[in-house]
Amino acid sequence: MWSAAAVWFVYAHGWTFYYGDAEAHWDIARRILDSRTPGYDQIGTVWLPLPHWLLMPLARVDAWWQSGFAAAIPSASSFVMAGGFLFCAVRRLFDSVAAAAASTALFATNPNVLYLQSIPMTEALFWASLSALLYFTVRFRQTGGWGAAAGAGIACCAGTLTRYEAWFLIPFVAAYVAWSAKRRRIAMAAWFAVLAGLGPAYWLAHNWWLSGDPLEFYRGPYSALAIQGASPYPGRGNWRAAGLYYRTASELCAGVGLWWAGLLGVLGAFAKRIFWPLALLGLPGAFYVWSMHSASAPIFVPSLWPNSFYNTRYGLAVLPLLAVSSGALVALPPRKARAAVALLVVAAGAIFWVIHSDPRNWITFQESRVNSEGRREWVREVSDYLRPRYVAGAGILSASGDFRAAYRQAGIPLRETFTVDNGLPWLAAIHRPDLLLQEEWAVVMGGDAAQSGVNRAGRYGIRYRLEKTIIVKNEPVIEIYRRIGGRHGSA
Hints:
It is a single chain. This protein is mainly α. It folds into 2 domains: 19-25 and 74-366, no CATH class; 372-484. The chain has helices spanning 2-12, 20-31, 50-59, 62-67, 73-94, 97-108, 111-116, 123-143, 146-160, 165-180, 185-211, 216-219, 224-228, 239-254, 256-271, 276-294, 319-331, 335-355, 363-386, 403-410, 424-431, 433-436, 449-459, and strands at 396-398, 417-418, 441-445, 463-470, 478-484. The radius of gyration is 25 Å and the shape is globular.
């Protein structure tokens, strides 16, 4: 009910697709089935596939796709799973229901977590995988069973098909399994590594099959490396700055109370000789610091230069660590006092959000709101213009990306659009519009490939008339053209 209430709150306020990535995940799932060229290739090569596979059966229903409400179902379900595995792991770890309840409550009441579990982003699914991995490795340490090792491998594999930081976990977990195994250490570690490694192996093969380069996701034209390029940012090549920006982002995501409770809890965990869970849950944060330093993955926060928002949600990667270490504080006193201590720890972690309850204090929401204002405006204008004018079958020449949001809102199926996602047919039409370009409409962003296609068509005597120009502050100019004298146009 808690998860469902958050989903409804976000949807009712119209926030589901404030993140451009949320819209993109939803529409990738849709275009696998609804496209001029539907099929497996529409998964792409950069974003990992598991979230899109889970979204696909929901996105195929026209009404659900257009409204977007169903897009939150995989994230919300993953949030519930993450909470369940987190509770079970902490209870097993500290032998304390109070500690488990406190850790789970601190995780589940964080508004940044609740926001991301209410939209089609990948964080909630990764939290579920990470919490399951924590549970099964803790269980393996206690039982040494093949089933626990298999559970850890499957959980990690799910993570590797969701977010790349899970790839970073594999060698560390394999080493831990080998170290903590009660028997057949190498076989146990290999069993885990084979299961966990199926995800990366599949994705490397997938990238090779689609592009000829198994590392297309890392160095291809749509990769983070290509998008960022050589542009400098704080933390690039500077470990100190990378650590500062990540620490700041994580504190803003967690809230001051949980941040300090978690740090104190680390000492409590050490006092109880609990080391592996803290190491495991700290690895995603270490991955992001390394990525800022060496892998073109900047994080911008409003309190540090350049005083803007970008990738702030990466700070949430250490929230499970802070929640679990806070649970260690509950496990320190005698059992009779733990319920009271749990209430105090949860209150200390949550008081910041009670005082700062305005959504504008939730940094992940604020990032999505601020960074999407211009995009949401021009998407709305494109949608409003096309909705009463577009006739099924006319076709729209367009770039991909954010334009798909306008077509979804206008109720225009993606198979009515013709974009770079359609591969060779699109390239052929752009280069030989006299033979292959049939679309009545063109929606372009100044200077993009679709604009070039319209200009080239003019050289072949195919006329597109500019119908509307959309100008929004700090956004590229959007132009809507209609073909005249052609197959679908009027003379």
